[in-house]
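Lab notebook: predicted structure, single chain.

Context: the supervisor wants predicted structures on file for every construct in the current expression panel, including those that have not yet been purified. This is the next one on the list. No modifications to the sequence; it matches the entry in the shared construct table.
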Amino acid sequence: MGLSSSSPDASNSEGTPANQTSYWEMASNGYAELVNAIIRPPRAEYDFADLGPTNFEWHGRPFQRVDLELVNPRDLTLQCSHWLPVEETAATRPCLIYLHGNSSARIEAISYLALCLSIGATLFAVDLSGSGKSDGDWVSLGFWERDDLATVVAHLRASGTVSTIALWGRSMGAVCALCHGHRDPSISAMICDGPFADLPQLVEELVQKARDHGLSVPSFIVSIALRLVRSSVIAKANFRLEDVSPIKHVSSCFIPALFVAGECDDFIDSRHSRKCLRESTV
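Prediction complete. Output recorded below exactly as produced.
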């Protein structure tokens, strides 16, 4: 029974006040949606053809896309692509690793291919674990994905074909870059496009936005729902919300970084990027 059709003291067939039942239904539905938004957003689907041709010419020069698989520390297979020139002699080149956003995949990197090739760099993109065609049932908004990134970096360094490495991350990918950067000061630079500063803070902001849009639920119900979110994330994806806090790492990361944020982003407020930027300069 909805709130709009019940009187304050109305009860359902089991004797439970109708408004209390509605509160619990709203909290339960909101809790499930919030858990899925964090660890199981819709998985991006695409065909290999969407990645473009495996061999192509650009400005009269031959290039290729090399698809490969890497295995991360959790024994999950990561599907990757590396766009690079076809050369008769081995040459080392700078490489940009692109890290996609939440509910996305490596196909997102195609938009930056021309830019990379035009400056003489190669482009490497990966379906982070739990995303796209890679293994994994859950995502972690940067916590486990940072180990995916470490796996990619190790592969590129061992290949002998890469000189310097830069990172370009969007949303979850930007958080991934920030959570890894302090562990690898040899990264040359990174672009952080729309990261959040702290996951618990982001979750609380999402709940507040729901309230601003008319979700009227008592504070104690919200508190219980948030505790359920935390326990579900730990049980299913094996990390704590508090573990995903890139702002805790920026002050110990000395990699040159450019922060980008959308003023009209209705999911991650631009204040998150500003907070990270301020902390990085302390």
